[in-house]
Amino acid sequence: MGDPDTGSPSLGRAAASGAGITLVSQGLRFVLQIIALVVLSRLLTPSDFGLVAMVTAILGVAEIIRDFGLSSAAIQAKELSDGERTNLFWANLGIGTACAAVAAACSPLIAAIYSRPELTGVTLALSWLFVVSGANTQFRAELSRSLRFRALAVTDVGAQALGIGAGILSAVLGFGFWSIVIQQIVFVVATCAINVVSCRWRPGWPHRGISLRRFFKFGAGLLGMQVMGYATNNVDTVALGSVWGAGPVGLYSRGYQLLMVPLSQVSNALLRVVLPVLSRVQDDDETYLRYVRRAQLLCCYGFGLSFAVAAGLSGPLVAVLFGAAWSGVAPIFALLAIGGIFRGLAQTTYWITLSKGLTGSQLRFYLLARPFMIISILAGLPWGAVGVAAGHSFAFMVEWAASLWWMGRSAGIDYRPLLRRALRSVLLVCVPAGLIALAGSMLPVPAVLRLVLGALAAAGYVVGLAVVSSTERADLRLMADFVQRATGRGRP
């Protein structure tokens, strides 16, 4: 009997097992990154973080170009020959090498933009990593396509631990902002090395007679989406650095990283499991929609509820993690976390776009939506990091609603049930839980106790809602079933 969500017993078991392994590994990475946030924030200054963030905000676009959407194209393809894999490897390596050369050549320009000469050395130290990442791209894609989630988990956790260890050791030894650079170098090199060792496939010499046209067609649309998305996500850092300097950028980058650590870890984990499965059942409309609805449920409770509560608890959360010297991060993070609710919900439309191969349509949407979002973010610049954070969250709230409508139009899916379900979760579950957490966090007790009491109060509200609402009870049962299946305790 086939799996009700995937249509295939083996695929259902692979998805459940992969979800469990991936979520555990991403949970470990989350813990490691929180440790790095806490420890490095106590060893380095806001200016140290701000200096490196100003460079990576610009160089990050080259990392997107280096991939060119070819990793997702390889995963999404129903069939992939060895010759195509080989040519994709050489394509990514060539693009990565070109990105490294351009980044190195632009190092004086980057230093001039911010009027900080030391950024020339930082840019040169990071630029050669594009070659390493280019070599790694198809090894990682092959592991993902083969559903080798355990190998990917080893890479993620191992490379993360090595990078963080190197960064903390460097900070203890007094390397200052170079500690963050060293952390990134060790992480990228270790990721590539472990993936190469884990992957059974090896590339040969390029094949002239094998075309990559279909992959570049898919990748070009995805590349455009990612570049537009990256510009939206990083224009805040570049603008703050140019106008307000390294200190405010350091505070903003801590708040932004506190948002993105759980968001990126969980979304990447789910993408790695969801994309191969959705791609394989994309022609079975009934099964596909059933899986999409459950995926959105995960986003509503996993992202929406978590970020709403985190926004309410921003004060004691920042105090416990970073200390009193970083109190300026709290209002920035609270505003960013509100936007994180909608960034999390938007993951569902992103999964549909990739699995249906609709990157061209989504790029057209980005060309309309992202300029509006950039303007919204920059509108807050006169009010510093807090104003930029407010503009950031407003932009992503509007973009989520518009993207859901656009996705439904492009994919031929009725978006209205998805919109209604998401709004119900936001208004009935997320917003009240966040406000209750905020009330609990304002009690006149130490920060740790305020954090615990606020979280317990929010949890109590959710449990109470489930008691009186049959819809919420049904949703929680689906969540529990997913967790059981992901950890191997439920039915295959």
Automatic annotation (TrEMBL):
Topologically, how does it sit relative to the membrane? Multi-pass membrane protein
Entries under InterPro entries matching the protein: Poly_Biosynth_Transport
Q: Which domain of life is it from?
A: Bacteria
Chief location bin: membrane
- Tell me one Pfam family matched here: Polysacc_synt_3
Q: Which GO terms describe its cellular component?
A: plasma membrane
> Which UniProt keywords are given for this protein, alphabetically ordered?
Cell membrane, Membrane, Transmembrane, Transmembrane helix
List the CDD domains. MATE_tuaB_like (cd13127)
What are the TM regions of this chain, as residue ranges?
21-43, 49-68, 89-113, 119-137, 295-313, 319-342, 363-383, 389-406, 426-445, 451-469
Localisation:
Cell membrane
- Family note: Belongs to the polysaccharide synthase family.
Write down the PANTHER family for this protein, in alphabetical order. LIPOPOLYSACCHARIDE BIOSYNTHESIS PROTEIN WZXC, PST FAMILY PREDICTED COLANIC ACID TRANSPORTER
Q: What is this protein called?
A: Polysaccharide transporter, PST family
Q: Which organism is it from?
A: Nakamurella panacisegetis
